[in-house]
Amino acid sequence: MKIYDVTLRDGNHALRHGLEPKFVAQYCREADSSGIWAIEVGHGNGLGASSHLVGRSVASDEDLLAAARSALTSAKLAVHCIPGFATIHRDLRPAISLGVEVFRVATHVTEASLAQTHIEFLATQGVMVQGVLMMSHMADTQTVIEQSRLMVEYGAEAIVMMDSAGHLIPQEVTERIQATKETLGVEVGFHAHNNLGVAVANAIAAHESEASILDGAAMGLGAGAGNAQLEAIAAVLERSGDSTLNMRSLLNMSSLVESTYRPNLPITTASGIESGMAGVFSGYAPQVNELAVEYDLDTTTLWEALADRRLVAGQESMIREIAEDLRNL
Question: Has 80 been annotated as catalytic?
Answer without folding.
Answer: no
